[in-house]
Design a protein that fits this description.
Length: about 280
């Protein structure tokens, strides 16, 4: 979307972010800082990788992102490091970043795009918007279309699938899951799964092992501390009364493919759907 700057005849580059704020730049951004690993991935996927000059810790995908200067963690920013990189756009994580620090950057005149995709179509929309801000519309549109097409295919494939009750473990200590407002829950739903904690109020609620035992899900799916670390599943094996344990329905999905709101979630959702197919075949 284009708008005209007040008092000037030159066109600005404008989009609306996930807080319904309009973000306008005088020209496409050339020095972008990403304040979450997910934002880093989204910018690269939107074709703006060459314009990204800084990122927070754990921004490890694609591999080129590992070489970027660090500006702190998503929980605590190094404002001096941010300002030293002279950004003309910051992409913030609305529910993850310390908002008092982000607001200080905005008060200093740095344009901030607040990202908070809650559904897969929001990821596609974010790719399109970031591409507009970076002047890489063709790449961003292609990535957005590919994600929409892939998710639509999965929705059609599993539209009539037999429901499977699912507990998704997003963290170990404290034990945490997701509710139905979370993107991971949409992935579960697309695959024909039913999130047993979907009705909880918090986006990522803390729960007890007793609560999981009471729900008795057909399958337990976990992320982990690493891309190939299914150790969070081991403690569940002691609970022989659980249906998921009795049928060996304990599965791992690499966290980067389901726990970041990026195009990688298409691969993660495919893996999740495959695991639920295995559960159905064992019934």
């Amino acid at each position: 979307m284009l708008c005209l700057g007040s008092g000037l005849a030159r066109a600005q580059v404008c989009v609306t972010d996930d807080t319904d704020r309009q973000v306008c730049l005088g020209q496409p951004a050339s020095r972008i800082i990403a304040l979450s690993p997910g934002a880093t991935e989204l910018l690269f996927a939107a074709g703006a990788g060459e314009q990204v000059v800084g990122a927070v810790s754990f921004s490890d995908y694609p591999p080129a992102a590992e070489k970027l200067p660090r500006v702190g963690s998503y929980k605590r920013l190094d404002l001096e490091a941010v300002l030293a990189l002279k950004p003309d756009l910051i992409v913030a994580w609305r529910s993850g970043n310390p908002m008092e620090q982000v607001e200080r950057l905005q008060a200093m005149g740095v344009p901030v795009y607040h990202s908070e995709p809650r559904r897969f179509d929001n990821i596609s929309t974010t790719l399109e918007r970031l591409a507009v801000l970076a002047g890489t519309e063709a790449v961003g549109q292609g990535a957005a279309d590919a994600l929409r097409s892939g998710m639509d295919s999965l929705r059609q494939r599993y539209a009539e699938a037999e429901p499977v009750t699912v507990f998704y473990q997003v963290w170990e200590e404290p034990l945490m899951t997701v509710n139905n407002e979370h993107l991971i829950s949409e992935a579960i739903q697309i695959c024909g799964g039913v999130n047993v904690f979907g009705e909880l109020a918090s986006l990522a609620p803390k729960i007890s092992r007793e609560a999981v035992l009471a729900k008795d899900p057909e399958v337990i799916i976990a992320g982990g501390m690493g891309e190939d670390d299914p150790s969070w599943l081991e403690p569940w094996k002691q609970f022989s009364s659980l249906r998921a344990v009795q049928q060996n329905n304990l599965f791992f999905v690499a966290p980067s493919t389901l726990q970041r709101p990026t195009p990688q979630m298409l691969a993660g959702t495919r893996t999740l759907c495959s695991h639920l197919d295995t559960v159905r075949a064992r019934d």
